[in-house]
Amino acid sequence: MRENATVDQKSLILVNTAVLLFGTAGLFARELTLPSIAITFGRVFFSSLTLGIVMMIRRIPFRIASRKDLFLLAAAGALLALHWWSFMESIKRGGVAVGTITFSSFPLFVTFLEPVIYREKLQAKNAVMALVILLGVIITIPSFSLENTSFTAILIGMASALCYALLALMNRGLSRRCGGTVTSFYEQLTAAIVLLPMIGRVEASPSARDILLLMILGIFMTALAHTMFIQSLRGIPAGLAGICSSMETVYGILLAYLVLGEAPALREVIGGAVILAAVILAQLKHPDTGKSKPNK
Fold first, then answer.
1. Phi/psi of residue 143, nearest 5 degrees
2. Longest pairwise C-alpha distance within the chain
3. Distances (CA, A) of 295 to 10, 120, 225, 290
4. Which of 110, 111, 98, 106 shows the shortest CA–CA distance to 160?
5. Which residue range forms the structural domain that includes residue 264?
6. What is the rounded (10 degree) CA torsion for 147, 137, 264, 247?
7. Within a domain: residue 3?
8. Which positions ≥6 away from 201 have C-beta within 8 Å?
9. Domain-located, residue 290
């Protein structure tokens, strides 16, 4: 059965707020001296701990009624671990601008996978916007050579985008059946469990400052942001959420410049501008915005 593909204003606000919080994550990847795998583990550890406490305080049941949903949550958690590791690694190798811009190829994957998975008609406008976003990514590529560090970072960033596209599509159904907080908790917890065996293989001695930064990253930029993003999927199609998520690129580049003094190259500015234009156009001209309400 075809699911409602309309959106409401509240969901649009939720997704944009979540994306703004996500956009700050790149700053932590640059500021923390720990390996990417250690940063990712710390992030999901503090996030799952926070969400677990919130669920106990709000008396939200931990039980998942369906075994199928439990399996899907575990699979989504594994994808989340891979997504965030590759995202952090892309930023470590190529900088905030490269990592966030290439991650923004995420809507391209969502736009063409969503109609197949959910048996919905491919929206021509979303397809055009996704291709425009891809053009923005291509503009940022300095050289198509594996020997080029930036190009390697871009490939890793696009792998991160593919993982997140699949995750977003899985969360569209899970968020409606399990709720945003529960879905986010189990995904973060699974990600932490998946990453735990790998922590012993890397040399990492976090300082008090590192732990504080990981706590902030886990609580606000992960637990809060991820829950808001998942909640927004109850009222908007994953394709539109993906297009909105491309704003993370703009936020990431701007914050990296203001906070870290990491000025983007001209091609990165042009690519970011192309992406920004596509995102704004997609949101302003979406015919269903504000006409429907999310499922309760």
1. -160, 135
2. 53
3. 12, 18, 20, 14
4. 106
5. 9-284
6. -140
7. no
8. none
9. no
Return the residue matching tokens 């500015």. Answer: 269
Contact at 8 Å (CB) between 5 and 238? no
> For the chain, what's the residue count?
296
Write out the two tokens for 14.
């939720």
Ranges of H-type helices in 141-222: 149-178, 180-199, 208-218
**pTM, whole model, 2 decimals?**
0.76
State which residues of the chain have pLDDT below 70: 1-7, 142-147, 238-239, 242, 246, 279-280, 282-296
How many domains would you assign to the chain? 1
Whole-number pLDDT of residue 284: 62
Identity of the residue numbered 283: Q
pLDDT, tens digit (0-9, with 9 covering 90-100), for 158-206: 899 899 889 888 887 887 788 878 888 999 999 999 999 888 788 778 8
Q: Tell me, what's the pLDDT at 133?
A: 77
